[in-house]
Amino acid sequence: MGVAMGELEDELQQLRTSRADELRGLLREVEYDTRNLGLTISGRFLYLDFETGRPKLDELLDLMEESILEYCIPWSKRAGADATRLADLRRKAAGLFVQKQGARQRSGEPAELLLYLLTDVVLGAPKVATKMWFKMHPNMVIHGADGIHLRLDGASGAEVYWGEAKLYGRLEAAMKSIAESISTSLPGAAGRIRDIDIVRDNCELELSSSEAREHLMAVLDPYDDGQLRDTTVVEHRACFAGFDYPHLREVAASGGRLVDGFAGRYSARVAEACNAFALEAVGKGLGQLSFVLLLLPFESVAELRTRFFERMDQSR
After folding, report:
1. Torsions phi, psi for 100 (to 5 deg)
2. pTM of the full predicted structure?
């Protein structure tokens, strides 16, 4: 591994979430073969573990709340901070989330936090830029990708994940919205250029060598001038969709009797979603891209939003 790649790898490991084991313990997964869709689509089709017939939403909300410091505050601001300083930064992190009640009802910020956690833990790619830090006001919207993550693969490979995150009542609506968002953020689009500038000026990585910094930017920049002849870069769109899944209420109403059959029922819903997304992607002219779908069903995304923002209010 070259000096630049070695330094990148060491720095990336520092950025991994400290909540990985907790999240893995909460998640369960079903499989679906996406090869018949005719596109480069893979997926991790997740659901929360059950307790007495209900998904462990409280535990997920606990984990999300505990992750806001790492999600919102750059590593350079946290490194070496004592307990008092970290408590101050955590309050600042909670204050960055949207506060207007009307905006909260449709806010994607809880989805973006989940995208961050899942891309890090499930896909093994830590974030390389903390976009929440640049909010000048809690109700400000930051445009561009919902997450920028990087995973190094061996001595000469890198995978970049440009994230999109949605919380919708209907899964098909989330799939459509993701495809629409991606179609406006392709290489050369204003949002993509702005994202690259954010990483260039405010990267999470404390890279000491100019070679490593140049290497990172060349990995992220689709118009790189040729610095990466020894590195294979693969770009993916990491697409998180949290959505209402009414069958979860049926499981709860059964007192847990339907838990054993949940995975099979959910697998069929996953198949419908993947086919719907493939149609949307083709319709938007995105057939040349690589997608990784991250699906997570809820009894109610409205409840998830409400309870998450209640916690942020208590933490400010």
Report:
1. -70, 130
2. 0.92
